[in-house]
Amino acid sequence: MADLLLAANQMAQQMAQMNPGANMFGPQQDPDKMFQGEAENIEVVDHRCVLDGIEARLLHRFSSTS
Q: Where along the chain do its domains lie?
């Protein structure tokens, strides 16, 4: 998680160095607070994968067709 925040912060700094007149965060927005908010959002996400429980589903499917 810390690596993601560090990489995003470094990217923002590099973009600011390339074009100092443009602020990608808009006026009055603190990039550190934005990144912290996104990190909290990522922690809250309930990840589900299509392959969760695939073994049981396949065994059930093939055992009922025989």
A: 2-21+31-65
